């Protein structure tokens, strides 16, 4: 996620991004990412995020860290009994090939 001026950009690995104008849509109800009128803003926000980090690399490392933690805790069966998750699930629409 990146915030720059009125824009808020949500980047998801393997899913479509989201773009919101927080001045006009503070509740983030109208995703502008698929609107061709905002293609330049979308590209600029993506480039700004990649200037900070590579989301694919971060995702890969996070998954490796999660797998190591699960292994250290004794496996999925044991880890899944240790309490509820505080994570928010990813969107359900996958990126088109």
TrEMBL record:
Transferase found in the keyword field: yes
Lineage: superkingdom: Bacteria
Annotated organism of origin: Bordetella holmesii CDC-H585-BH
Keyword line: Transferase
Gene Ontology MF term list: arylsulfatase activity; glucuronate-2-sulfatase activity; transferase activity
Protein name: Putative N-acetyltransferase YedL
The keyword Transferase is annotated on this UniProt entry: yes
Gene3D superfamilies: Alkaline Phosphatase, subunit A (3.40.720.10)
